[in-house]
Specification:
elongated; two-stranded antiparallel sheet; mainly beta; 18-stranded antiparallel beta sheet; 20 strands; about 60% strand; single chain; about 400 residues; 4 helices
Length: about 400
Amino acid sequence: TNFLNNKIPFNSNDEYITHAGLAVPFKTKQGNGAVGLAYFLESNFDNNLKYEAFNPYSTMTNYYATNGTRVRANNLAYQLYLTDSIRLYTPIVDSLQQKAFIQESGGLHNIIGGISFDLSEYVSLGVAIQGKWGTYDYRRRYSEQDIYNKYNYFDKINWTNIDFNLLEVDEKIEQKITGISGSLGIQARFEDLLRFGANIRFPTFYEIEDVSSIKSDAIFGNGITRYFDKDYESSYKLRTPFVYSAGVSFHALDITFAFGIEYKDVTQIKFSDAIDDIEDLNLAIVQELVGQTTWGFGIEYEIPLAPVVARASFSSTTSPYIMDIPGASLQTVALGGGVYLAPNIRLDGVFRWNSISELRTNYGNSSDSRYTFKNKPLDIGLQLTYRY
């Protein structure tokens, strides 16, 4: 992370099953067909990060006082005795040491069933339907402290003596996610030399249940501590855009080369059946987002006189935001291979290096409360394939 030019590294690890599947072939009048059932993990949300810096420009206290709800029973800064009662004014506007530790966890799981069959000797058609479910959990422990005693004295504010020392905030979000989608694809082939495929993934319709809480306390120089706790519940629906993709592969001299591209118009994302604050995001979506493109290529080489194949690939996904920071495109480089343990059993392995930078916010949306998060995970995977 990089918060106000203070860079903090942090490492963490996790393990998970990414996919498992079964396909069964059958004969048709036109040739071959197959039905399949599979599980795959579409998103792994596990993540840990921390940031810390002295902020001479702004505070979370002032953000809640200025931009928080005007309902005093729900305003964090007011309930912690950090504002006056008339204008919700606070003198704590800058010069605090701020730090946070964030944990994210969960994942988006998929069960997909499909069928494919030959339309002719050279063309096949496939359809699939998939159900989605998962969770997303977020927790942030945040604090801002008057380390230079700027507010820890009898000041000239006529409505109170702030005598402020420390604000601590513990935020939690727990989401349950369910969804359904489908896809339609076609593949054309010419002998063993050429394959071409195209696919349309239909919009995914999600339903999301959201339970969140915020627990906070303010510690003052005279030893008094004030507390504020609040729980929230909401639910809403989300529709994602169509996704269009196509790919081509060539095979000759024991070498297979593949190239693919995918596009989705992210401005088609839409929230519905939600509170006003969430549905207002629909206005921001059409103004701040743009179409997103993923492209990539890969090479596989069958090593002569050995039951081994070697692989390498590269892919890139553009940022969905019109304005973004450098490095916001996801870049992936992978190296791997496979070993035939038997003519119909293969063990594959892969090392995959990823790199992406995200612009996040500590509170609000001003430049003095933002930080960048650069994520460079190394994925190490194993897969066993059995053909019967």
